[in-house]
Design brief:
Elements lengths: L1 E6 L2 E4 L4 E9 L1 E12 L5 E8 L4 E3 L7 E6 L4 E6 L8 E11 L5 E4 L3 E6 L1
Parallel strand pairs: 2-11
Antiparallel strand pairs: 1-3, 3-8, 4-5, 4-9, 5-6, 7-8, 9-10, 9-11
């Protein structure tokens, strides 16, 4: 079984920065893609950023230049550096992995979510 543990959320003033981490553990055989999503109250869950195992990245257009996704394959960990935060970035941020566990096919795994609140 694969487990994801997120950390790094919190309360920050507008213009500030936060760095989220998501560590995967368990019987992981391979991670194909790592992603961050976010969900604001009353809204759908939106894709924030993606990084492949080879290091290719992709971002939601509205977040390019402020958010940076990175990964540490050796640690099975993905990060999201968020700069110049705005109140509209307030949301629960979720880590997602498309990975294969021992004896399991590739599938999506989700973290429990971490709250990010940006005050004006």
């Amino acid at each position: 079984q694969v487990q994801l543990v997120e950390s790094g959320g919190g309360l920050v003033q507008a213009g500030g920065s936060l760095r989220l981490s998501c560590a995967a553990s368990g019987n992981i055989i391979s991670i194909n893609v790592m992603r961050w999503y976010r969900q604001a109250p009353g809204k759908q869950r939106d894709l924030v950023a993606t990084i492949t195992r080879s290091g290719s990245t992709n971002y939601a257009d509205s977040l390019k230049g402020r958010f940076t996704i990175s990964g540490d394959n050796a640690k099975n960990t993905v990060y999201l550096q968020m700069n110049s935060l705005k109140p509209e970035d307030t949301a629960v941020y979720y880590c997602n992995l498309f990975a294969a566990g021992l004896g399991q096919p590739f599938r999506d795994y989700w973290g429990q979510g971490t709250q990010v609140t940006v005050s004006s």
